[in-house]
Amino acid sequence: SAYRLCTMRKLPSILAKSLTSGTSGSPVLPDMSEVRSRLRDIVGASTNWSDHVQAMQERKALHTLLAKCQEDLPPRRMKDSYLEVILPLGSQPEIREKYLNVHNSVRFGRILEDLDSLGVLICYTHTKQEMQPRSPLSIVTALVDKINLCKKIIYPDRDIKFTGNVSWVGRTSMEVKMHMLQLLDGDYSPVLDATFVMVARDPENKRPAFVNALIPESPEEEEIFKQGELNKLRRIDFSTASLLKMAPTAEERNIIHDIFLNTLDTRQEGEGTVSFRSRKLPPNSVWMEDAKLKSLQICHPQERNIFNRIFGGFLMRKAFELGWAIACSYGSSRPFIVSVDDIMFQRPVEVGSLLLLSGQVCYTENNYIQVRVHSEVYDADTREHHTTNIFHFTFISESEVPRVVPKTYG
C-alpha cells in the first residue's frame, strides 16, 4: 500500500484518564461541540458578534495574570494535557450531514477544523491555572507540521475518537500530537496522526506569553520530547534554506535545467537557431500554469474563532477543498488525501476580509499529486494584499496522472 502506516505512539495507559466519568463506570467522553463550548468559557468569548468588542475589552484586564518568566509557572507532565474526545457519527446520526461528502464518506475539511479546535483546548489544558476560570493566554495555531493518513476512507456512520496531548514545549510555544481513530468491528483503529504547533500570546494577541515547561516522565516520553526538539530545529533549517533567501543547490539547478531542456522546441534546423522562448510540452504532460484554480471567500462573523478572528480550521477546510478540486480535475478521478505538510499561519484573518485562495499542482509522480494553495487577504480600504497562509496537500489518484511541467523559472 502506498499509504504510510500510522505510528500510533502509545503513551503510558495512565494517560488515558477519563475527563468525566459516567454513572455506569465507563468514561463519558466530551464531543466536539463541548470542546468548542469549553474554549469559549476558558477565554470568555462572546456568543453574539454584537458583543465582541465588549468581550475583548474585558480580556485586557487579564494582563495581570501573565507570568513574568517561565520559571514562575509550575511544570507539567504529558498526561496533564491528555484529552480524549468523541465524534459520535455512529451514535448520533443527526450530526452526520455536516460531515458528509458526495461519495458518502467524511469530509476531510471538517476533520481539519476539529483537529484545530482540539489542539487549542489541549494547550489550554496544559497551561490551566488553578483557581482561574479564565485564561490570560491567547493560544493560536502557528503551524500544522504534518498530518499523515493511513486510511483512504473515513466512514460517515461510525464513531470517531480523537486523542492528544502536548508533546514538546519551548518558552512560548507548544507542540501537540493528536491521533484520530475510528470504530471498526468493536475496536478503534488508527486513521491519522497530526502534529500541530501552537503559540501563546497575551490577552490581546499582541505579544508572546510564557507557558508551563514540560517534564517527560519515562524513556518513551523522553523520545517524544526529543523528537519535538528535532522538529523545531528542522523547521529552522527549512526556513533558512527558503529559495527567497538562498539560491538553489547544484542538484536543484540541474533538475531545473533538465526540465527546461526537455521543453525546448528543437524542430528548428541547427542548434544555433533553437530559441529560449520556443517551448513545447513533452508527451503526457500539462503546463503548471494550466493546472490552477482560484476561489474567493467573504469572511463572515459565523466563521470567527474565540478571539474574533477567522477560525484557522475554516481556512484549512477552504484551502483543502480547493486543493481537492484541483487534484480532482487534474487527475480526472476522485483523489484521496495522503498527507498535509507545513501549513504556516503567517498572519491572522480579520472578520470582514476578502480571502483569496489560489492553488496549483506543483509536482506529480505516478499516482501522486502535490498541490500548493496560497491564501491572501485583500483589504478593500487600503487595496493591499497580504499572504496569510501557504498550504501543501499530497493526494493519490486512482490512476496514473500526467506529469506537471513548469514553464517559467518562478
Task: Describe this protein with a few key phrases.
two-stranded parallel ribbon, ten-stranded antiparallel sheet, globular, 7 helices, about 30% strand, about 400 residues, alpha+beta, 2 domains, Thiol Ester Dehydrase, Chain A, disordered N terminus
Question: Could you describe the 3D structure shown?
Answer:
It contains 7 helices and 12 strands. The protein is α+β, with helices and mostly antiparallel strands. It has a 10-stranded antiparallel sheet with strand order 1-3-4-5-2-8-11-10-9-7. Strands 6-12 form a two-stranded parallel sheet. The radius of gyration is 23 Å and the shape is globular. 34% of the residues are buried.
Helix-strand layout with pairing:
Elements: H1 32-43, H2 52-60, E1 83-87, H3 96-99, H4 108-126, E2 138-149, E3 160-169, E4 173-184, E5 187-201, H5 219-240, H6 250-262, E6 285-287, E7 292-298, H7 312-331, E8 336-345, E9 354-365, E10 368-379, E11 384-396, E12 403-405
Parallel strand pairs: 6-12
Antiparallel strand pairs: 1-3, 2-5, 2-8, 3-4, 4-5, 7-9, 8-11, 9-10, 10-11
How would you sum up this structure in a few lines?
The chain has 410 residues and is of the alpha+beta class. It is built from seven helices and twelve strands.
Give me the number of helical elements: 7
Q: What gyration radius follows from the Cα positions, in whole Å?
A: 23 Å
| Fourth-tier CATH superfamily name of the largest domain | Hotdog Thioesterase
SSE succession:
HHEHHEEEEHHEEHEEEEE
Structural class: alpha+beta
